[in-house]
Amino acid sequence: MNFFTIALRGLWRRPVRTGLTLLGISVGIAAVVALVGIASGYEKSVVNQLDVIGIDVIVSNMEGGMMPQVFDESLKPKVAELPDVEEATTVLMKMLMVEDAPMMMVSGREWGGFTWDQLKVLEGRMPRDENEKAVVVGRLAADVLEKEVGDTVQIEIDEFEIVGIVDGGSVVENGAIILALSRFQEVMGYEGKANFLDLRVSEGISEEELEALMEEIETIYPEGRAVRASEVVGTSQGFRIAQAMSWSTSLLAIIVGILGVMNTMLMTVFERTHEIGILLALGWKRRMIVFLVLCESAILGLIGGIVGILIGFVSLELLVQTDTIRGILEPDFSKELVFRAIGIAVIVGVVSGLYPAWRSSRMMPSAAIQS
Amino acid sequence: MDSQDQTDNTATPIFDVVDVTKEFDQGKVQALRGVTLRIEDGEFVSMIGTSGSGKSTLLHLLGSLDHPSSGTLRFKGQDIGNLPDPAEFRAREIGYIFQSFHLLPTFTVEENVQIPMFGLPGNTAKSRKERAVELLEAVGLSHRLGHLPTKLSGGERQRAAIARSLANNPTVLLADEPTGNLDSDTAVQIMQLLGKLHAEHRTTMVLVTHDIEVAENASRIVQMKDGRIISDPKAPAASHQSHPS
């Protein structure tokens, strides 16, 4: 028997209450894992998509929402002629409700631009030219929409023929509907407009040269920003709001968890006043009692954290199967998130135990024994 | 008086209690009213009195479970009345036996005996276990090591509690009504066990009881009433406390 055994036995005395408290912490931690996992997964999915396509720099105006503001296509030639810009292509991308799918990425791409290059046709073919009223759909999107080659899909008020099913190499690409930019501009009423200008820059460009290039682009397009592909999500105001909301919700869940553990530990301390008195009478130091209470609450946090991570993981897996999220993001269930969640859970446990521990240390053994 | 209880009054006593008072509820309750008592090393003292006489309060003060309101309380010449952290004193010097046994219900008998050993540094898990088994064998409970207290009879529980009180090899055993919850036959057995332990280990023993038959097992009986000692065969004449009320 060691000190850890004594702490565990303390928790085991009231298995139902301990179980309910664990459930409270677990739900809090599961919320952290699920919400942060989704937010982070969205970021990673987008970065992965850009990486697969081979975009180095993105020019957009990310203020005001998850999707950037549109700009005039005339920006492209001005940027394309800058030194170190190898290729430039415009994209109009929107999140739309498409038939039964509540949210789907629809990407209108400049015909002949490099953003078409990585798409591998799994079934059917690519559109013949930009005038053909046709789309290709990513394999996840085809799955969500329950469509095959030859079916039609309604985008806003227009119907398009699905001429191919493609593998884009990333979750976001595979969850998207892709069509020629000019066709999508017509549908959306954005003739001559795009909201992304994707660039490939010269190989071997130095960091300083890249910085200088991005600064120059911003002088040409003062409302927008030129950012490295890896940083594009972080600059989105909408994403920042979503991320803040996910952390705020997580914080609320954590506070609920703290209150739950504190309540349990306080009740435990009050209930065990007599037992604490006996331990003091038997020569236990007050700091040992404090440590025992903190140890018990930390164990609650740790176990709650582990269970919470499992619940969070299962929830994430279930969430990404829903039509709303499927094909838009790949949940991020990284080691970092796991360690962070366990860290939060143990801190929740210890913080919750501080006040009960302090209360227990104030007891006079003679009075505690007689209680 | 047992020849073993012949003590040298010039030696430093185990306990030297001088004019100690204890008040509760901001002075509304006076549990002890100027108690003076000297207990020598190796003595077996019974404190007898009715409920509210102050005997348990005095026992708590001797065990440093509470502080006196006034007066001096010394252990082997050292003032213990207001120790800032008396835990180490309790762990090293005092063994407690309670009327209601106070074994921890979720721990086995053997684990209960190990509990006080956590109060002192240097005990390994192995040494704690070995010591607990040895003590439980000494009180005749070697067949009950892995049982929970709820599975034991009253007498067995008190035996386990006695083994626990000896865990850290204390200088003093303080027993608060150790037979109060036992039938008369079991009470006799427990008192025989305590007498045997006292005889074998020369542990100073202070026993609180309201039962004169139990008290008579000791070599010295101190009688208390209304927070005062009204009878003590060893009380110095000058400080004899048969105060007028």
Report on this structure:
The complex is a heterodimer of chains A (371) and B (245). Chain A is built from 12 helices and 12 strands. Chain A is of the alpha+beta class. Chain A folds into 2 domains: 3-44 and 239-370, no CATH class; 70-222, no CATH class. In chain A, strands 1, 3, 4, 5, 6, 7, 8, 9, 11 and 12 form a 10-stranded mixed sheet that branches. In chain A, helix 10 (286-319) packs antiparallel against helix 11. The radius of gyration of chain A is 28 Å and the shape is elongated. Chain A starts with a helix and ends with a helix. In chain A, 47% of the residues are buried. Chain B is an alpha/beta fold and 245 residues long. Chain B has one domain (9-239): 3-Layer(aba) Sandwich (Rossmann fold). Chain B is 28% helix and 24% strand. Chain B has helices at residues 55-62, 87-93, 109-114, 125-138, 154-165, 184-201, 212-215; strands spanning 15-24, 29-39, 44-48, 70-75, 78-79, 94-97, 172-176, 204-209, 220-225, 228-231. In chain B, the strands form 2 sheets. In chain B, strands 6-7-8-3-9-10 form a 6-stranded mixed sheet. In chain B, strands 2-1-4-5 form a 4-stranded antiparallel sheet, with helices on one face. In chain B, a hairpin with a 2-residue loop joins strand 9 and strand 10. The two termini of chain B are 31 Å apart.
